[in-house]
Amino acid sequence: MELVAKRTLRLLSGRTHLPLAEEIAGCLDVELTDANLVDFADSEMRCRFGQSVRGADVFIVQTHAAGGGRSVNDSIMEQLIMIDAAKRASAKRITAVCPLFGYSRQDRKAEGREPITAKLVADMLRVAGAHRVLSVDLHSGQIQGFFDGPFDPLTAMPVLVDHLSANLPADMVIVAPDAGRVKVADRFAQHLHANLAIVHKRRPKGTVATVEASDVVGAEFVEGHSCVLVDDMIATGSTIMAAAEQLKDHGATDIWVVATHGIFSGPAIDRLQKSPIDRVIVTNTVPLPAEKAIDKIEVLSVAGVIAAAINAVFEDTSVSEIFGGENQT
Q: Which of 47, 199, 202, 246 is the most exposed place for a label (fewest CB within 10 A)?
C-alpha cells in the first residue's frame, strides 16, 4: 500500500500589517488562520492558533516595522513567538515572511564597538524554529547569508517598473541617490530604456540622519527631463531630500521617488512636504498611517509578488523564476 501525504498550507499573520496578510491570503485563495494574539497587562504577548498546524506548511507574515501602537521590536518578538508556537505544534515546515526585514541597515560594523543586528535578527528567527525566510528588497544582499537556511529574496521591481512605464514620459532619467544604489538603479534604467545618473553623497562621520549631496554624475541627462530617484527605503528621508535638491539645481523638470519600503520615520513627512519632490511611490510592505498619507505619496501593492513566492515554496518550485532571476542580482 502506498500512502500519499496530504499537504496543507497555513497562512498566519502578526498584528503589525494585517491588511497586507489578508490581501496575500486573497491572492492565494486561502483563509488566514487565527493566531489569537493577545497582550497581557504587563505587555507580554501570547498566541494560540485557532486551527491545527500539525504536519502543515506554515507561513507566518509579519513586517518588521512599527504599526498599530507596536514598535519594530514588538513586531519581531511577536513573529518569534508565533514561530515558536508553530514549532511546538508540530508544523512540518515554517517560513518567516518578512516583507521588511528588521534592522537590515545594521548589516556590518561601520564603526568600532557596534553590533551587527541584522545577523542577530536572522539568528533569532532560526532559533525560534523558522526553516526558511522570505523578504522583499533587502537593504543589502549579504543578509541572505546571515540566516542558516534557505533565504528567498523577493523584489518589488516589476510592480514599480510597470507603474513608471505607464505614468512617466519615455525620456525619463533614472537616478541613484548614492553609490550604494547604482546597481539597482541601473536595472530600472535597463528595463525602462532610460539614461542613468548618480548623486554623489557623503554622510559625515559619527552622524545618523545627516547627508550631504555634492554633485550629480550624468548631469547632462538631468536638465530638462523628468527624474526618478530609486531607493530601497525611505526612513527619515535625508538621503532622498539631499539628492532631490541636487537634481533641482541641475534643471530637472519633475522629480519622482520610488522605494519599496516607505517607513517615513521622524521628520520624513515634513521634509517631503517642503521638498521639490513631486511624487513618492512606495509599496505596502510597511503600513502607512492615515496621518502620514499625504497627497504626494502613492502606495502600490506587493501582495501578488509575495503570494506567488509563497505558492512556489509550498509547491517546491523555483522562486527565482518568478522574477527571471533578477531577485538574486
A: 202
